[in-house]
Amino acid sequence: MGFTADDRTQITELISMHGHLCDSGELERLDDLFTPDAVYDVSDFGQEPLLGSAARIEAARALGERNPVGHHVTNVVLTDVADDRVHARTKGIGVYADGTAGSVTYEDTIVRTPQGWRISHRKIRAHRAPLGGRA
């Protein structure tokens, strides 16, 4: 069947809302974006994947002042995987309180639930070298 233009808008807004909620400290509202059993894979940062909302909230609070003050998402690319599942690939820019910034790629699996579209799996890949290290 594929996803519609309305689905595309809803999914893009879902992805965008992550930064708004994190930057305002509304971590409990992340449940509006993720499935209850979502995997938040931060293994590229040397940590174990986080399972469920409590683990995501605990990790963010543990980072404290080391959290970005601004999470920005760009370059949203959506690929239809199945009727109720979409793959999203986006670029993320994190701006820190000292003015430095970092870049990541989010690889998301997004599923349609009775509550609407939700992220069921997010893999975060850090960018540490220009041209993906292929220079």
TrEMBL record:
Organism, scientific name: Actinomadura darangshiensis
Domain SnoaL-like per the UniProt entry, residue ranges: 5-123
Domain of life: Bacteria
Name the record gives this protein: Nuclear transport factor 2 family protein
Pfam families per the UniProt record, alphabetical: SnoaL_4
